[in-house]
TrEMBL record:
Pfam families: MFS_1. This is MFS transporter. The chain crosses the membrane at residues 30-49, 55-79, 91-112, 190-209, 247-268, 280-298, 310-330, 336-360, 372-396, 402-423. InterPro entries: MFS, MFS_dom, MFS_trans_sf. The lineage of its organism: Bacteria, Bacillati, Actinomycetota, Actinomycetes, Kitasatosporales. Keywords: Cell membrane, Membrane, Transmembrane, Transmembrane helix, Transport. It comes from Streptomyces siamensis. It comes from the Bacteria. SUPFAM superfamilies: MFS general substrate transporter. It is a multi-pass membrane protein.
Amino acid sequence: MSDPAAPLDAPPGQPRKAAMAAWIGSALEYYDFFIYGSAAALIFPKVFFDESDPATATLLSLATFGVAYAARPVGALFLGHFGDRLGRKKIMVFTLILMGLSTFLIGCLPTRAQVGGLAPVLLVLCRVLQGISAAGEQASANSMTLEHAPQDRRGFFTSFTLSGTQGGQLLATLVFLPVAALPEDQLLSWGWRLPFWLSVAVAVVGYVIRRTLQETPAFTRQAATEGVVKLPLAVLCRDHWADVLRVVAGALIASVSTIFTVWALAYGTSDAVGLSRTQMLWVGALANIVALGAIPAWATLSDRIGRRPVYLVGAAGSAVLMFAYLWAISTGSYPLVLLFGVLAFGVVYSAANGVWPAFYGEMFSTRVRLSGVAIGTQIGFAVAGFAVTFAAQIAGPDGADWSSVALFTAALCVPPVLAALSARETHRVPTERLGESVAGEAARHETVTV
């Protein structure tokens, strides 16, 4: 008799390999994504926009950071559809290649001084490609790890996707530290391009690992028996609409990450506060180092006590600690900034961040899991992406109204709390039965044999 904890006859070693593939792919995706965030806060206002109006240039630069989030829902519709029809592996390989290529091209772009208004246009186009890639990356990696994982450790294994995200942010920060320390003329001429070019090395490693990964047993069995869903979006709208809305609301928690990573970086290095670029980058680096341990720890706890209580700690705690972190920046006291930055982002936010891959993925059946997670998260993430732009406006003309930004961020944490309170607890539901209570038997008529 097979081990009841084994996920549908998973081949030996595949759960760990799937987790590693998710980790390194997410690390690359978010290395690429967050070096852009650092550059948007520190470099791009001077390279791609009109320096005669620094406040407007910063606002426009931060808006380009949000453009990728606007592209995510569109990418989620297409990549989610094909991921549920063709398999998780194909999407994981595609998103890796697209992100690596678009990031490398950003490093090759001409500046405003060289080609005028064409420069920001090209920047936005590359940023859109990054957004489309990110739309399918986490959802496909989450589905791959969840469907390979032992059912009593789904939280732990799926958390590798978000550990990879933190690893990518850490790598991006560490790469930017020596770059940010360059003399101003070297930084703005060629130094800022190096982190974008370096992404190629990580892309090659991730591609090799993902190419050798097997498709999940759950998807393979679904395709071989009942067939794959012909129109995943139609099934989602009919049978899973409430859970999609929960995921949309839950995904707003990512606003904590974008405000911490981008707006707080710009605020801390502004004339109003006066901290150096290196100091603020080190706050992010140390917080991400702590998160690398906190994420799997919180996820393991969720395998024991449930997804909802752990997620609620992260969502509600982040709302409170954002006030403490932004207040600490306003004081200019670097020890306080370090303390509350690591506590807020490294420890407390990691509770929600480490649990949501399993929490959201377990709301859906194998037939529509990738679509449900991709569409739900990317709509929520689109709002989170533009939270940076809204924060820049809320902060006033001098960018110093930190309390309004903290209140705005806390308000965005309320929908995730409500979503978690209304969700089912699924950490003990067998993998093959996830989503059954919602989908029903009627949905099986929308499948087509492959």
